[in-house]
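P.,

For your records, the input lines for the assembly:
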Amino acid sequence: MSMFKKDGKKEVPGVGVSSDIVFMLLFFFMVTTQMRDTEDKVMVKIPSASEAVKLERKDLSSYINVGTPIRSLQAQYGTETRIQLNDSFKTTKDIRDFVAAERESMSESDRAFMTVCIKADENTRMGIVTDIKQELRRCSALKIMYSARKAE
Amino acid sequence: MAKKLPGLNTSSTADIAFLLLCYFLMTTTMGSQTGLSRRLPPMPDEKQKTQDQKVNRRNIIIVKINSQDRLMAGTEPMDVSQLKDKIKIFLTNPTNDPTLPEKELLDIEGLGKREVSKGVISLQNDRGTSYQAYIAVQNELVKAVNELRDEASMVEFGKKFLQLDEDQQGMIKKLIPSYISEAEPKDIGKKK
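Structure tokens returned:
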């Protein structure tokens, strides 16, 4: 019996310290993380640009994805370049509703700062991007951002 | 003697925390949103007659990208790598060339009277232009303006543009404005 007691006293400290660190990291990621609320349905490889700047106010931006449908959806939708808004394939005509809905979800004071982020694949033809731009101009969502990777 | 309370077994908390940590590590998208910010011109009112803004010929440089991603700036075809210098010369007009933009003496608050270029860059693209080429050109235009702003900041404040405070940045922005107009699309070079 006495043998066991001795052992107990010599016990090394538990995992308490390391779990603290892990929890700290955990909170950091929990705070900084932003859930992807939409699933990508198009393949987008964004071009790189050396002058790319960070998007301020992520919460005030809405995304328009442009590209070819992902592999698993190609059988259904083909390989033509498509526009994705939220969770489904849309056409340029739907952008108006999309912008209106996005505006609606923002507070009154933030609406002027809404940015539309165009995430287009680098092989996209400008025709479709121009259509989007024209449509955005029509709904006076004038602040846009061409998504690009920061390259040195 | 009172019975000692058995210690809580906490060895699994680390495991749980690690699991959660891995989850957030995977789902996080930190600072991945970067890009080139632009402001679109408002749609012209249909009722209003489009009155051509009289901009002097010399104040405009037309940058065209055709469907083969070839670039033309002003009157000469060129490579993307040459564009930046061309734009910088266009915007500064160091030799006061009569074919390059005029300068206007403006009173900028905090800086005093400075010469400000009236140059406008007009970017035209074809429907067949690839997005990559378009972004590359946009990038060069932004780069030219950024470099000019850096140079101006160095002269005025002895610091880089990004190190200036907001007021100073505003002044430099007035000194080196960036007028990049994205023209309505044209179907150039797509005849049949």
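Two observations worth noting. The longest helix of chain B spans residues 131-157. Chain B has four helices and eight strands.

Regards
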